[in-house]
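Supplementary Methods, section 5.1.

A reviewer requested that the exact input to the structure prediction be made available. We therefore reproduce it here, unchanged from the version used in the analyses.
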Amino acid sequence: MLGQNVFPVVALAPNAARVTVSGKLRGRHARQLGAELLRLADEGITRVVLDLRELSSIDSLGTYALEEGLDHGVRLHLVVPPTFRFDRFFSSRALSRRGLRVHRTLEQALAAVRDIVDSGISEGVLALV
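The structure derived from this sequence is encoded token-by-token as follows.
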């Protein structure tokens, strides 16, 4: 584990980690996630698989927490269940243009990150997953 806080963090590679979020991502919980993403960025993590399979809802503060990570150079790979629907606010933010990808299974997200990490492609050069 990389961090000791409310979100389990597991190292996937020297520059990649998996973070698990459950329940409702709003208010203080959202701010804590934003702080965790900044901490990971400061530690040199550039790819985060954000496991949201147990997430029941996300509000605007949750969306801002994701944006905060993206703004600090973290590429996010969200894992959501097939039935999960993002609200209009989240959809309006165009986060995919800023390095966010949505996957329907954890295996897909891990494979995508593994392929990128194994490729040795510089983060500065890589534009798309």
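The first helix runs from residue 27 to 42. These observations are discussed further in the main text.
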